[in-house]
Amino acid sequence: MSFTVPTTHSAPILAATHIDARQQTVPAEGSPFPRLIEHFHTGTGIPAVLNTSLNSGGEPIVESPEQALAFLFSTSTDALVINHAVILKEDQLDTVDTIVIGGGIAGLLTALRLARSGQHVALVEADRLGSGATCANHGMLHSGALYARRHGHIVRHCQQAHPAFSALLGTAELPTEDAVYILPPTEAVEFLFHLDTHGITHHQLTPDDVPELRRSVTTTHVLITVRERVFSSRRIIATLAAQCLAAGVTILTGNAIDRITHSAGRVTGVILGAVEHVPAASVVIAAGTGTPELLTRIASRHRQLLKSRLDMMVHLPAARFRRGLIFAALDPPIVMPAPGGGALSSFFGGVQPEIAGRRDFPVDVIKAPLLLREMDQVLTPGTIDPGRASAYVAGKTDYVGTIHAENGVVNPGCHVIDHTQGDNLRGLYTVITGKMTLGFHASKDVTDTILGTDTPLLIEPQEPTAIPTGLLAVEPWAPPTRI
Ligand SMILES: Cc1cc2nc3c(=O)[nH]c(=O)nc-3n(C[C@H](O)[C@H](O)[C@H](O)COP(=O)(O)OP(=O)(O)OC[C@H]3O[C@@H](n4cnc5c(N)ncnc54)[C@H](O)[C@@H]3O)c2cc1C
Question: For residues 153, 453, 140 and 180, what is the CA-based torsion angle, rounded to 10 degrees?
Fold first, then answer.
């Protein structure tokens, strides 16, 4: 089928209006083309794309990835897409306003905010998106109850985070019931006082309401329910990555930033991999356990205010937990339903060994059986199957430079360092989330510092762009998959 196009309308689609161009239609379902055409329409106002042979004038048609790459670099083509890979030319990074280092919740939310504010942002992730603490955590969107007694300053932030997560990341939430806090009677009065002070809704339960706990626990403790929401962290990462792509963020995975470059007191960019310099006006470090190393390389005075620690988690695939169980004193276990079934358990707080670097963390082979034994002592027999449990460790970096210390050293809140102060370096910012829950606050604070604005905490979703699953980390407990 062909169309007659009035000459007044031919200019926008000049390439498709020659003497024998034919119209092709695509099926509404089962192929990526309708979404591609929709996006092209939104961006350009033209509801059609040109399907043409891939070759330059007088050359044979491209038949292999190698020939396609040669075509990309020998023509003025902007980008090449082969299956799930998007290949860009290096000079497209030359126009970057801000480089964000790290593809965890802090980096992705920061990149998204900056891109929505009109910046050209490149996000560089050493591994896959989410491969740091973000895909390895409990997925708990804190109500604030856990912090009401000792860290009251972050409770309001936790409460403000809830509408922000619902607006943008609601589809990542797991269907769970209210969590049960388990307290010795001597601590219950103080705990309830702080919940009331912060306006955290709670209800008391009877021993019969919590059959998953042994009677020896339920009859000697006070049992209180609080709405603690649980999210699939991997789904959070997938959603954020798709929103970032839709907002025009350039995402590079499998590329570590070696160091930040600067000259005359101003950031000039980063060294990507071993040698490649990528220029940028601003750089945001959101690299979790990779952050201290990057700060060491620029001899930052803030380095000593960061501490990376190791947390051990046990995954119980056979357990059926419909809600979280939280022993609200330090050290006993905390159990949360896991995405895909089963449960995740760790010791709450307690001593977490300090670490250096971003990978190859040691596994404490004593701690996992200890945790399993503690759970066995409090859970009704048969609730978990220790024979099918697996343990892993994950590192996180906290800011320890404020008075809000946990166990004497850690501030669980989020923190932004503007390196103009202390290091006399303009254009460099470090962001520490403290908790996944505080990702919206951390990214807002760093964005507002860079742009000198006051952006809303909430980020509205846009029509997302599909994201290849190969770019996303898998949870540490997920069964091995073939790639
Ligand atoms: C076991 C455990 C359980 C937790 N449970 C919860 C919970 O239930 N609820 C909650 O709110 N919080 C929880 N947290 C805390 C939460 O996970 C973290 O605060 C949050 O995920 C940190 O996000 P981030 O983006 O700052 O860092 P990360 O997720 O660690 O991301 C940093 C990224 O930077 C990349 N990177 C590092 N160096 C470089 C480099 N040089 N170049 C390029 N990329 C680099 C890494 O590969 C990584 O992907 C938990 C943490 C742990 C460890």
Answer: 40
Element (H, E) at 390: strand 390-399
Q: Using the mean position of ligand 1's atoms as its centre, give its distance from the Cα of residue 436 in Å.
A: 8
Is the same domain home to 36 and 184? no
Is residue 186 scored above 80 in pLDDT? Answer: yes
Q: Are residues 179 and 40 in the same domain?
A: no
CA distance 73 to 92: 12
Choosing from 255, 358, 414 the residue with most ligand 1 atoms within 8 A of its CB, the one to mutate for a pocket test is: 358
Residue to substitute in 99, 112, 128, 138 for testing ligand 1 pocket (most ligand atoms within 8 angstroms of CB) = 138
Q: Indicate whether 429 pLDDT > 60.
A: yes
How many domains are there within the chain? Answer: 2
The band of 473, judged by pLDDT with boundaries at 50, 70 and 90, is very high
Distance (Å) from CA 8 to ligand 1 centroid: 55
pTM as predicted: 0.83
In a domain, 114, yes or no: no
Q: 387: domain CATH number? A: 3.30.9.10
Chain centre distance of CA 456: 19
Domain extent, residue 345, equals: 174-230+307-399
Instruction: Give the pLDDT confidence of 79-107 residue by residue, as tens digits.
Output: 777 665 666 665 565 689 999 999 999 99
Closest by Cα among 209, 109, 182, 41 to 448: 109
Q: Is residue 58 part of a domain?
A: no
- Select, from the ranges 65-79, 142-156, 160-174, the one with the highest average predicted confidence (pLDDT): 160-174
Q: Is the CB of 358 under 6 A from ligand 1?
A: yes
Helices (H), 219-342: 233-246, 291-297
Least confident of 48-52, 142-146, 258-262, 280-284: 48-52
- The CB of 134 under 6 Å from ligand 1? The reply is yes
**Residue 45, token pair as written in the block:** 């106002």
Instruction: Establish if 32 belongs to a structural domain.
Output: yes
Confidence of residue 482 (pLDDT cuts 50, 70, 90): very low
Residue position matching structure tokens 């590079």:
252
Q: Are residues 188 and 318 in the same domain?
A: yes
Domain end, chosen from 9, 35, 52, is at 52
Give, using CA atoms, the residue closest to atom 9 of ligand 1: 140
- 256 close to ligand 1 (CB < 6 Angstrom): yes
Same domain, 333 and 197: yes
Residue of 396, 399, 430, 440 to test ligand 1 pocket, by largest number of atoms within 8 Å of CB: 396
Q: Is residue 9 part of a domain?
A: yes
